[in-house]
């Protein structure tokens, strides 16, 4: 009879384990992989030379700009926050490592309990106290105190690798946080450089405006003298005065832009106020000798945001593996050792030393819906990480392509604009000479002066765009954080 019961119990346990394992098999191992095909080149050039390999001090040669970048990396709050996120990820990694090891706690407890007369403990204690086989120290008081001083431990054996995958996810996220820090440094470097070149361009615009104000004031004085001599009309004087007022108003607009740009740079460098030191003209600055993007596959290694997205995807794959293991039974071992007694005077007696070991297997039955929900959520988050990874790759390719073409097109644009400015300056001189001898009217002078002003302002703006595209290329290819 006992044999049949043992057989039935054995069959029940085997069936239960079979159902649990079969239920877990319904959630097959899934690895989310990127299947986006990356083009072999950006512009047909297979040269692997990339501007991303240039150290910061070789790409930026302006010492004032390098000082601003160094200050920003040291003092910027976003960089400090990124560093703290690395610390947080490191702490999570240390925590995940502890899951593989048993926990050991020092335990000191005290309690008291009054058992009912009609309970097993109550009757048992009563009979024990009447037994002639015990001494006075062994008599159980009622109510019964319970004191314990010792160590308790709990260790869930990683039978299926659940904790191993959770640790792998934490480690991968730690690496991702370091890539996020590099991304923050790269973005900050690009921001500072962009604002600095904008500031130089605004300085140049201010110089152009001041020069044209002087030129237009001289022209206004000439036209006023000619009016006194009867060679010009009040209409001509009013036209020249209007043009001068327009140019003078531009000076204040540029001044406000300079103030705002300096304040933005002060913000990025962790300062409230201060004049940004710069001693270079944007027209005399030279671009780095290497302005090549390399090949698209280098982005996967160099760009911090792509590396971060790739590592986040790897972490989600580890999470998916871990959540699958949650459907399987878990084995927990709980040993303890210490002193246990119902009288404080006897607590540290040698006879009060006790130890024990408890092992148990638990398997999810009624909470499987929660596990299924966790699995579905983790799968959705994993797919979201995959789509984000693909988006970052597409965005990186687009940014590099735009920057390459931007440098090329704006360089050509600058060359023709330089010729235009030269011709317009000559036109201003010729118009002035012709006006003095009566062979040109005042409208031609006004038109020539306005055209050269607009062209010179656009020339400075074009030079700025060349540098901004170079900065974007440096950032887009993954440079700027070393």
From TrEMBL:
Superkingdom, natural source: Bacteria
TM regions (residue ranges): 7-23
UniProt topology in membrane: Lipid-anchor
Keyword annotations of the record: Lipoprotein, Membrane, Palmitate, Transmembrane, Transmembrane beta strand, Transmembrane helix
Chief location category: membrane
Keyword Transmembrane helix: yes
Listed InterPro entries: MdtP/NodT-like, OMP_efflux
Subcellular location: Cell membrane
Family to which the UniProt record says this protein belongs: Belongs to the outer membrane factor (OMF) (TC 1.B.17) family.
Annotated protein name in UniProt: TolC family protein
Species name: Mucilaginibacter sabulilitoris
């Amino acid at each position: 009879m006992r044999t049949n019961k043992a057989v039935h119990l054995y069959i029940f346990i085997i069936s239960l384990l079979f159902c649990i394992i079969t239920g877990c098999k319904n959630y097959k191992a899934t690895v989310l992989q990127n299947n986006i095909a990356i083009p072999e080149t950006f512009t047909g050039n297979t040269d692997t030379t990339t501007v991303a390999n240039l150290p910061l001090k070789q790409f930026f040669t302006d010492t004032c700009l390098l000082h601003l970048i160094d200050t920003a990396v040291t003092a910027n709050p976003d960089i400090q926050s990124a560093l703290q996120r690395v610390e947080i990820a490191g702490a999570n990694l240390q925590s995940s490592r502890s899951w593989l090891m048993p926990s050991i706690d020092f335990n000191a407890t005290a309690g008291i309990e009054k058992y009912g007369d009609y309970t097993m403990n109550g009757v048992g204690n009563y009979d024990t106290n009447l037994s002639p086989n015990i001494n006075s120290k062994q008599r159980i008081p009622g109510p019964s105190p319970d004191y314990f001083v010792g160590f308790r431990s709990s260790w869930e054996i990683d039978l299926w690798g659940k904790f191993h995958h959770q640790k792998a996810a934490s480690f991968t996220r730690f690496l991702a946080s370091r890539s996020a820090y590099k991304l923050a440094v790269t973005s900050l470097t690009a921001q500072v450089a962009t604002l600095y070149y904008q500031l130089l361009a605004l300085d140049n615009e201010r110089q152009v405006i001041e020069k044209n104000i002087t030129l237009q004031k001289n022209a206004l004085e000439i036209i006023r003298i000619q009016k006194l001599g009867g060679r010009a009309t009040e209409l001509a004087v009013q036209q020249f005065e209007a043009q001068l007022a327009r140019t003078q108003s531009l000076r204040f607009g540029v001044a406000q832009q300079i103030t705002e740009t300096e304040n933005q740079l002060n913000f990025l460098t962790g300062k409230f106020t201060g004049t940004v030191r710069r001693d270079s003209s944007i027209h005399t600055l030279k671009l780095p000798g290497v302005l090549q993007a390399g090949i698209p596959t280098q982005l996967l290694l160099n760009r911090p945001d792509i590396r971060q997205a790739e590592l986040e995807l790897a972490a989600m794959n580890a999470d998916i593996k871990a959540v699958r293991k949650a459907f399987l039974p878990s084995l927990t071992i709980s040993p303890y050792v210490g002193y246990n007694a119902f009288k404080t005077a006897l607590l540290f007696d040698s006879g009060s030393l006790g130890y024990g070991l408890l092992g148990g297997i638990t398997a999810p039955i009624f909470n499987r819906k929660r596990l299924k929900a966790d699995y579905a959520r983790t799968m959705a988050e994993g797919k979201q990480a995959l789509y984000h990874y693909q988006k970052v790759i597409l965005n990186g390719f687009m940014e590099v392509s735009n920057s390459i073409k931007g440098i090329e097109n704006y360089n050509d644009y600058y060359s023709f604009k330089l010729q235009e400015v030269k011709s317009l300056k000559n036109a201003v001189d010729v118009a002035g000479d012709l006006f003095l001898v009566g062979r040109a009217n005042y409208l031609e002078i006004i038109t020539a002066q306005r055209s050269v002003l607009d062209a010179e302002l656009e020339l400075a703006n074009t030079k700025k765009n060349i540098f901004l595209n170079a900065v974007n290329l440096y950032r887009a290819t993954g440079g700027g954080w070393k």
